[in-house]
# Entry
Amino acid sequence: MKIFAIEHLTMNFGGLLALNNFSLELKEGDLVGLIGPNGAGKTTVFNVVTGNLTPTRGRIIFKEEEITGYKANEISRRGIARTFQNIRLFQDLQVVENVMTSYHGGLKSSFIGAVLGTPLYNREEKEMYEGSMDLLRQVRLDGLAQERAGTLAYGQQRRLEIARALATHPKLLLLDEPAAGMNAQETHELMDLILKVKEKFQLTVLLIEHDMRLVMGICQRIYVLDYGALIAEGTPYEIQNNPKVIAAYLGEEDIA
# Structure
């Protein structure tokens, strides 16, 4: 069943055409890659989908509802979460506190309830902590829950970002270069983690990534952008052998 679609998405920044009539479709449970050379428009797609940008033209459909132009918090409440190419953690907060911050959008208790320590707030605080610890166990960070996020190794910070995204209870998870800065062993572990959380939380996943080992290793289908336009779509095998894709990456990355 189709859960998500981008229809004829176009994004102009002044005279720069960042996206040109781009379309994409995801079925429930898909794990799909979005790749392309630097500057191809990949992160712009994520920024439009998550409400950070309003497209010049085109539509975003999620669970049969058009969400084009919705604010970021409205999109998050509907079940779309993302990580960022540049890690965005609260560096001075504890690891567990970083995850707990993602729960606050769903709290029923008020600020006054937090100040007064009402039974509702105390119950929700306990549930947030327990839920956060469970997510940290899923990404193998529970043993570091009380450490400051800024003290974590780079790969651990990437996993913490995924835990924070999962705390919003998404159905669609957007991963923006999750393997950036990782070594080969960390990338292999990340591949296993993405597959694990996808199955456990019944997610649909769309990921941007430059590491072709990761993309070709776990993605069912791949879309390829170049200069804001779709130049190819297919299985990993089809993409590896597509002349347009090879030409787009020539001199930048040996995709074949």
